[in-house]
Amino acid sequence: MKNLMLNNALLFILSVILSSCLSTQKFKMTSLQKEELNIIETDSDRIIQECYFMNAEKENNWRHQYILSILNDKNEVIPIYYPLNQEKSACRAQLKKVEKILKKESRVRLCARDQIEKILDGSEPEVHDFGYLGKHESPYHALTFDTICNSKECYSISDTWTYTCPGFKK
Fold it and tell me: How far apart are CA 60 and CA 126, in angstroms?
């Protein structure tokens, strides 16, 4: 009986170790420096989005910016922005299209432009709330949003850019 309990305990420990070795990475980023493209593969729950209203002296409908924030493997936040200001309805529509892709599968691929660079000016990093994954700081300058895909569908701000991201197809 004692040997059976010991064998079961050893089997359990071995299965935990093996399953952790076989599990996929929660975040993987490949940068193609020449083209300044970043291919990011991550779990859907490591992404939050918002339509940020940039307050100005005068109320203006064209002051919304779509922001997608990704939690990397070091628990740092990489912000990714849509490059242009938008009307609130256009920003919300973009948010809903991306949310639909995020909800369909637990894993997504993104293509973002620009080189990833840390903020070095000494300013306080912005903090983002990822719910049950906690609150995390963003020490990086923003990348430019291009494309997001799950295994079945893609959404891009430009059809042309989708075809320039290696491995991305409409």
Answer: 25
